[in-house]
Design goal:
The strands form six sheets. A seven-stranded antiparallel β-sheet has the order 1-2-4-5-3-7-6. It has a five-stranded antiparallel β-sheet with strand order 10-11-12-16-15, with helices on one face. The chain has a three-stranded antiparallel β-sheet with strand order 17-19-20. It has helices at residues 36-50, 60-66, 87-100, 216-229, 261-265, 269-272, 276-292, 352-368, 382-394, 399-409, 436-448, 454-460, 464-472, 483-492, 498-514, 527-541, 544-553, and strands spanning 2-6, 9-13, 23-29, 53-57, 80-83, 113-114, 121-127, 135-137, 142-144, 176-183, 190-195, 198-205, 210-211, 214-215, 239-245, 248-254, 259-260, 295-296, 305-310, 313-319, 326-327. It is 36% helix and 18% strand. By secondary structure, the chain is an alpha+beta fold. α13 packs parallel to α15 (498-514). Mean pLDDT is 83; it is low at 414-457. The protein folds into four domains: 2-144, phosphothreonine lyase (Phosphothreonine lyase fold, 2-Layer Sandwich); 176-254, Phosphorylase Kinase, domain 1, CATH 3.30.200; 259-434, Transferase(Phosphotransferase), domain 1 (Orthogonal Bundle); 448-553, no CATH class. A hairpin with a 6-residue loop joins β6 (113-114) and β7.
């Protein structure tokens, strides 16, 4: 027997198994922080008896990440992987482990099928000893791309367990009809759908998925509770129905009009600049009203607000995500349940209300120039603020806008104020120009001084195959949470493996070619952000030929 440590895994390989098959049926075990060691002990014993190779996650903090909503769907819940050499071995150990693990609970492994009705044992057919993650169709002998996010049996094999869950839905697709996924997460998807012929949003919280403050189900309960407290407020959605199904929780909400602030800010800056000041005031008013009800929003980002605009005029601002909202007297740290790019470490001593305003300041900064994206590399925010001021000075951004953002971001300098006073006599329109040539040196300076971040570390802990599967299921090209952002995080940590960046770039190019007419031009969510990532990568590896092509495109 050989014990091999790599990435976050320890692999046990038996001498009888000289090599792996390139693809086949494999088993995954999930679990909880509390029962993981017990499950691992049982799996080790059964695999040792049958000399079946397996791997498991070593450190408990990596187990926690794999069980959290931050983990990509393709890797979620996979704490142990078992590699039977034959279909017969697969069936035998699946049945044996099923009987031994019946009493254990864990979250559903989203890419797999449950072994009978087990809550911790799952299976799928996929690549085993292949670096590219692809499959070979044994009927045609052709290589096929494996981009299955959820369980699906390839056409050239049969399911040896032949198990189908016969549990019936009482509500989903009977009275509530999900039609389209608008946000995919291991913690639970968000859907657009129908209820009694009305357009609705359906939010899902999956069972036993860890969030930054407890579990995903608790996040959904917080949202329901906050909306109930604000029942007369016009800036939150109305709740239509709450129900449980398949061990998951769901809430059906009215579909708010408009688009996310993220999408609104990605439009041509000449359009948004005319409405920017109005947006600032409306967001502050909404949050102040929330505070008057002794509720803290906690998670403030450009994806958590919606903008209703009619014929170029802003009508309303809505809060569309309240999963981290909480009572003022609850004990939360600034980072719990919050988006990383919208606060710095100097805010930890602020009151909860002050922390909300501090985060709004970084939100406003992102709407003028998204330097706040690099707070992951600049925890104090000092360098980010310095670069933002330099940008504003060079591009002649109105000092009044800078003062609003300063007063919010630097809330710790205004501790005596109960509320934030932004009643300046401002002009109607913000005038500035954003160019790739201006942004590039600022980004390079931040990246050169960066340290490891939680997100980049987690990406590096993926095996090559897991990262490729993750990338293949992403539809977002942006710096803000998309493929370009993943590439930049890897570069930030000097992780320059050509096969992985090549795969990311190929996926980006495919998406751009497929959706060319729908692509934004902007930096944070569009083509310019892609160009910035490519520039940084080809400079980092010294590929002058590719660099020349990117510069020519830009």
């Amino acid at each position: 027997m050989e014990k091999i440590d790599y990435n976050i895994f320890t692999q046990i390989k038996y001498d009888e198994n000289d090599s792996y098959v390139s693809q086949g049926w494999k088993l995954h075990c999930s679990g909880t922080i509390e029962n993981y060691k017990e499950i691992l002990k049982i799996v080790k014993k059964e695999c040792d008896i049958r000399k079946i190779d397996f791997k498991y996650i070593k450190a408990i903090n990596d187990v926690q990440f794999r069980l959290s909503g931050d983990c990509p769907v393709s890797a979620f819940g996979k704490l142990i992987t078992i590699y039977p050499n034959t279909v017969e071995d697969f069936v035998l150990i699946a049945k044996e482990l099923y009987s031994k693990l019946k009493q254990y609970h864990g979250p559903y492994v989203l890419s797999d099928n449950s072994v009978y009705n087990s809550e911790v044992l799952y299976y799928r057919y996929g690549a085993i000893d292949r670096d590219d993650g692809n499959l070979i169709d044994y009927e045609t002998n052709k290589v096929i791309k494996d981009n299955r996010m959820y369980f699906e049996v390839p056409s050239f094999v049969d399911d040896p367990l032949n198990y189908e869950d016969d549990s019936q839905s009482k509500i989903i697709n009977n009275t509530v009809f999900p039609e389209r996924i608008i946000n995919t997460s291991s913690a639970g998807n968000t859907y657009l759908g129908k209820f009694q012929d009305k357009n609705v949003v359906i939010k899902e919280a999956r069972n036993l998925v860890i969030s930054s403050k407890g579990y995903a189900k608790q996040d959904l309960i917080r949202e329901i509770r906050t909306i109930g407290t604000l029942k007369n407020a016009e800036y939150v959605p109305k709740i239509i129905q709450v129900f449980d199904e398949f061990n998951n929780n769901y809430v059906v909400e009215e579909q708010l009009p408009g688009i996310t602030l993220d999408d609104w800010a990605a439009k041509d800056y000449r359009e948004i600049s005319k409405q920017l000041l109005k947006i600032f005031y409306m967001i502050i008013d909404v949050v102040q009203d929330l505070h008057s009800n002794e509720i803290v929003l906690q998670d403030i980002s450009s994806s958590n607000f919606m903008i209703d605009e009619v014929d170029g005029d802003i009508q309303k601002v809505y809060i569309c995500d309240l999963g981290s909202s909480h009572s003022i007297d609850e004990n939360w740290s600034v980072d719990e349940g919050a988006t990383v790019r919208f606060y710095d470490s100097l805010s930890k001593d602020l009151t909860p209300k002050e922390q909300d305003f501090h985060k709004i300041g970084y939100l406003f900064m992102s709407m003028i120039f998204p330097l706040n994206n690099f707070l992951v590399a600049d925890p104090t925010g000092n360098k980010t603020w310095e670069l933002f001021l330099n940008f504003c000075e060079e591009e002649n951004v109105s000092i009044e806008y800078v003062e609003i953002i300063k007063q919010l971001v630097k809330t710790h300098s205004n501790r005596s104020k109960e509320t934030i006073d932004v009643n300046f006599g401002l002009g109607d329109e913000l005038q500035y120009d954003i160019s790739l040539s201006h942004m590039k040196p600022l980004v390079a300076e931040l990246l050169s001084n960066s340290t490891n971040t939680r997100h980049a570390i987690n990406l590096q802990k993926f095996t090559d195959l897991e990262l490729l599967e993750y990338v293949d299921n992403i539809e977002n090209i942006s710096l803000n949470g998309g493929l370009s952002g993943i590439g930049m995080l890897l570069i930030t940590n000097k992780y320059l493996k050509a096969s992985q960046h090549g795969h990311i770039i190929a996926r980006i190019d495919y998406l751009i070619a497929s959706h060319r007419n729908d692509m934004y031009l902007g930096i944070e969510k569009g083509i310019l952000g892609v160009l910035m990532y490519k520039l940084e990568y080809f400079i980092s590896i010294g590929d002058d030929n590719q660099l020349h092509l990117v510069i020519k495109c830009s």
